[in-house]
Predict the structure.
Amino acid sequence: MKYSLGLTVGLSLFLLSACNGASQQPDSGSAARTVTILGVVVGEQQDKLEQALAPFEEQTGITVVYEGTDAFATLLPVRVEAGNAPDIAMFPQPGLMAAFADAGQLIPVTDFMDDATLQAAYPQTWLDLGTFDDTLYGMWYRVSVKSLVWYVPDAFEANSYDIPTTWDELMALSDQIVADGGTPWCLGLESGDATGWPGTDWIEDIMLRTAGTEAYDQWVSHEIPFTDPQVKTAFETFGQVVLNPDYVVGGSTGAISTPFGTSPNGLFSDPPRCYLHRQANFIASFFPDDITLGEDVDVFLLPSINPDLGVPVLVAGDVFGMFNDTPEARALMEYLATPEPHEIWAEAGGFLSPHQQVSLDAYPDPVSRKQAEFLTTADSIRFDGSDLMPSAVGTGSFWSGVVDYVAGTPVDQVLENIEASWPN
Amino acid sequence: MTDNLLRILNAILAVILGSGGVIAIVYGLNVLVERLPKVWKHQLLPWVYVGPAGLLLGAYLVLPTVRTVYISFFDSRSETFVGLENYLFAFASREMLLVFRNNLLWLVLVTGISVSLGLVIAVLVDRVNYETLAKSLIFLPMAISFVGASVIWRFVYAFNPAGSNQIGLLNGVVTALGGDPIGWLVDRSINNVALIVIMIWLYTGFCMVLLSSAIKGIPRDMIEAARIDGASEMQIFWRIMIPTIMPTITVVTTTMIVFVLKVFDIVFVMTGGNLGTDVIASRMIKEMFNYRHFGRGSAIATVLLIAVIPIMVVNIRRFRQQERH
């Protein structure tokens, strides 16, 4: 009797696990045509992304299953290692994508798309940025312009300040603001465990303007060390602003303690707590709700420092890479090369496209149009260096090094620390 | 709708059959072993009970540990054997020396202050009639997770530039007294202590509760006899209470040491390990997930494991002694 009870339970357990496996089949199954995407876009931005992909679903009957996560860089490698890679990943950093391309886990875009289509869709710069080992893996979608200085035109008018066209003018303007009893810069470096990244953008921007694109490329690829005098100059030029307690709201402690998202709020207070804020275009989504782009706030490019090097533009962006070679994934990648998804999100706002067939009219406000124009007319374009460096530096010692530098650690020691952390 | 209902039913069924299944397996094996000859039975019966737990421990604890130790001898992507290189980093690099210094600071301050403060409070509240209330209040923070506590304390330490509204409690007090706001988490001379205070706040209640019950276990007549013999309250505390509850103090202290060695959340939420506040566990997470250097991450994990072993040995010995009594 007892014996048969145990047997029954054991048997039914086995049966349950058997039918469980069967009943799960349709969920993940192959009957429905789907393409899965893993990306960092969440919240309101995710709605806009899904809006932009909706026509694709209607036209092809393919369902797009998008999964947004803020732990992308941790989750994706785990899923790929576990053999559960998404069909397509939306990488916020080409560095991580390069690692997968290197390991042979990505499908080259050129396997199924011809050069002419790609050339028509993207400027060469962006094609190069998605290319590793002479093979194109990446399809760019959302990009950001980082070299922007935000200001409030009314406040400038009230004090008859002019928009500076050189670094010296920018510093002279800062001095002028201090002399008038104000604080020129709002600067926030705090960003949870990513604290420090806004400072790396400053240094990259300055590096492009003081050392030029060639030295910048060498620096990013570690052909010149972090301790190079050119890098030191970039740090010290940033120091001119951030280490001057009169220039920054709250001084260096304020810079380290202020979250990057709330730091521009000082522009809009009355009287303004600051007049200038250097940050990428996406900071607009952190502005208070009643701020109208183009009326209450405007942008200019961070001016040139060395006139010979012009005004380079620092950019970043999201790039799509393909893990599974399915017809559905191919179709989605092809759709991304058409202007349609780019225009839809551009119209929804908070988005810049690298696609060259997207007209400036697609952008809803003058500030976005201006940013898109910066992107197309830039003297030179370079990608965010910390996103290209190995993660131990790019998302580690460079970030914390900036924090150390702002907190008062001597620049030589900061540079040595970062240099020492570069993986061999 | 029906889909969800099916899922819920499925889940309930799985739970029932799952737990039933475990019982059935043990029960069934037991029945089987009972039928064997006596010699066999005595040999096999313990394994029926220890076996499943042992298997689970092996699969989820022992194997991963062994693998971590193994990986710690390989490079960042676990491909090339690098010998002791990762351990050289874990013990000799400047960053890691800073990490060890911080952990030592945490160990001394958190363990020392939590245990002694817990002891003092336990002795003091033993004599008042609102004891339950006082103990509950001090024990309350225990119910808050590390991350939750860190979020609360971020507001306590919040810094706003001078002249603007202070949302941070401490800087509110400082500016009300006429001082300039202080960057509690930025200033290198205080940021470590600022983090340590959070853990003391969290765990003093834990120490107090355990020590308090030990104090209540001291026989009343022993203390009264001491009083009759003319011992002062201080003498009673040092010569009677402390020696009597020494086993509990040891257990509490060693438990606290293990907790402190594992501390990670507070540092991660408050400063992200910036400005010299990294500790062993937060550094391990950084190496593993931010820098994707599996070798170094595993080496640090192994160091942490080795550091915990002696304390666990002390604890287990203490348990054995108590079992014997």
Notes: The interface with chain A takes residues 10, 13-14, 17-18, 20-21, 23-25, 27-28, 31, 76, 94-95, 158-162, 164, 183, 185-188, 268-269, 271-275, 286, 289-293 of chain B (CB under 8 Å).
